[in-house]
Amino acid sequence: MKLSVAFLISCAAALAKANFDLYLGQESGTTPVGDVHETWNIYPNDPSCSDVENSRNWFGRDDVSKQTGIRCKGGCFGGSAVTDIEELEMHFTNDPLYHFTIYRDRNYDMYGTDGQVYGNCIPFPGNSYSCHRGQVIYDGVRKFRCLTHLTVPQIESGN
After folding, report:
1. Which residues form the signal peptide (predicted)?
2. Residue 104 has what DSSP assignment?
């Protein structure tokens, strides 16, 4: 009995590490790509300012079918309720292909381009950050927690 309980606890701990939180961010001030731009970022938990400054950015785009980025339909602004987002397409990398879309009317399941479900995202507002580094200000709000077998390092290490 002790072995099975320990096994279940270790499995639950491993699964919890695979989840990621999706944040909508904005960088303003003197940045490499201009004055203000929208970014989307993923973190395994609530980020520190160091995490924010060093995270990989995905830019908001109108079409991500042939390029990486995030396409958002509906209430996709920092101050909008996460439940106003109708559709969110996340094209993180091409190699391996991490390209998923979540739909409000489909329970926010993560659909791959092959039509398979790779996880589920839960509307999960409630955390935000504001970090200052020199002339750059990073502001962001959490939109979703995605429950999946993929980890942040797996996704960020792709091309």
Report:
1. 1-18
2. G
CA distance 66 to 46: 30
Task: Establish how many alpha carbons lie within 13 A of residue 65's alpha carbon, considering only the half-sphere containing its beta carbon.
Answer: 2
pLDDT tens readout for residues 37-59: 889 999 999 999 999 999 999 99
Query: Which domain covers residue 134, as residue numbers?
Result: 19-156
The answer to the question of residue 139 being in a domain is yes
Judge whether residue 15 has pLDDT over 80: no
10 within a domain of the structure (yes/no): no
- Lowest mean pLDDT, pick from 5-14, 60-69, 86-95: 5-14
Please give the Cα distance from 159 to 136 (Å, whole number): 26
Return d(Cα 51, Cα 55) in angstroms, integer. Answer: 6
pTM attached to this predicted model: 0.85
Query: Running DSSP on this structure, what letter comes out for residue 15?
Result: H
